[in-house]
């Protein structure tokens, strides 16, 4: 049985299948790393990536957003604007020559790993846009970009062209992150509403305090006016009384003088009358003698 050539044919089939798989993976790598995920044209600067690690030509995305054609791709429904994307800066490989299929156009300057294979993972730092080999993170433990030294947050790092298994994990993380963000936004909104309500209450309290103070001042002014009027009236009455008293006193002082004058006048009048009588009497006596 084993000498009829059947085993050789089976072996050739297996080898051909493996070769086809390798070619398919190579084509897949070429498509994912060097072609725009949206239109499958050659990747050229400026390049952007979404949160799922897909690579795009920025111009293609802008045009698709403008003409609405992006809505026809449900797998990209999470891209609503350019803010949903991150700039990507690959480092040019100095060993690459145009048309060289054995060398990659880009590489990691830290590990010298070239971009393009499915075995070497590359990660994107959204804060600066540099794409760095996954191995570099195990070599250098830092929170600053290995190329430009710009700080980054490890939880924000994006895996470029992840495997299907990695993609599932990434999607779940994004869902959890979105829920957390919504919760934070809700808390912020509630806090903001509380602050606004507190400010309104404080303003209302201030207005009430001003009104109360104004009423109090008005009341005090009225009381002062009443007190002033009463004082003026009392002073007037006192003045009148004093004037009357003074007048009466002067009256009393002048009355005896008037009485005395009248008496003197009476006495003077009486004396004059008596003298006249005596004179007349004396004249009569002289006449009788004659």
Automatic annotation (TrEMBL):
This is DUF602 family protein. Residues 227-245 have a biased composition (Low complexity). It comes from Cavenderia fasciculata. Residues 190-221, 274-290 have a biased composition (Basic and acidic residues). GO terms for biological process: DNA replication termination. Residues 179-290 are annotated as: Disordered. One of its GO terms (cellular component) is nucleus. Residues 257-266 have a biased composition (Polar residues). InterPro entries: Rtf2 (IPR006735).
